[in-house]
User: What shape does this take?
Amino acid sequence: MSPLVWDLAHVGSQEEQWLVRDVGGMEPLRPEIDKLYDAFEHSRSSRPSLPLLAPGESRGYLAQVRSKTLDILDRVPLEGSPLLEAGFAFGMMVQHEQQHAETMLATHQLRVGEPVLHPVAPDPRVLSRRVTGLPPEVLIPGGSFSMGTSVEPWALDNERPAHEVHVPGYWIDTVPVSNGSFLEFINDGGYANPDWWTAEGWSSRNDDDLTAPKYWMRDGHQWWRVRFGVVEPVPAEEPVQHVSFFEAEAYAKWAGRRLPTEAEWEKAARHDPVSGRSRRYPWGDEDPTSGHANLGGAALRPSPVGSYPAGASALGVHQLIGDVWEWTSSDFGPYPGFRVFPYREYSEAFFGGGYKVLRGGSWAADGAASRGTFRNWDYPIRRQIFTGFRTARNDAPAGGQ
Assistant: This one.
């Protein structure tokens, strides 16, 4: 991970380059730091040794950039060029900042020492609406649906264009896999049995000596976890997080299931069988509220499975947005008709790079960067990010059981 102060000033640097200079046409504020905060110039491992701005100076720089950005927003018409249409450039920077805010939370989770972050207490009205006794899985009927988008104003290039995809019928978990369910895999020797792992996954398990999700530890019969400096019992009802793609894949095979494809995930989240259209979010087209999903980072943890019934999809699948990013079995690549916009390094540079697609957004994600079409990606070994999963299985053929 990068030093926190690198992410902080990087947010300001990108905002200056795209909004102050490109959109606003203003003179550069700090051109000498452009390369310092260019993510493609310096690897994460090299950033601690760079002559970075100090925390106070970084905050001052970001405040200066933000002040100019707000002035530009007041005077620039949000129409005309592709960068300005519907405020795309501003929306791109909003999403960029929120993605780095989530990255900084992942960095905080990695640090050792006394807690420095403290959660906001959950709204008791939301918790009281938690549903138990849900069916374990939902049947998603086979057929075509519209995947991706051509109309979402802030959609990034990898989400475009909308295109019809035929998906055979399948079953998908109603809620994400919980800690309690994952513990059954552990207790059954799941980490010790190569039968559940692919060759690549087993190699990763051995190379990193994986025996449980990251930040978990065992004391006798009790499992504990470290969450932002707090040591606490692993809560069985929360979605499991901090697992790699390989761990999710092994669990799914152990359970006699598999990970859903990206198209299956999106159909479960967006398809409305009554109207035949694809929604912006599982619950509809309105932006997320605190009643729909656990987003925004304040909770510092996922909500128990079955929370937020108002956020369920038209097909009855729950917690598809917020709580944990969900691994899919799909590699990250372009949609048919993909066009680079506004720069190659946002998406195209990562196609074919061994990345797996993640969907849905975590509790640490912002609503601006967690819509039903939003695509995240990472290496299959990654565990420090707020990732979980749900499983799927094929629909039984006609006449089957």
The radius of gyration is 21 Å. The chain has a mean pLDDT of 96. The domain at 122-401 is CATH 3.90.1580.10 (paralog of FGE (formylglycine-generating enzyme)).
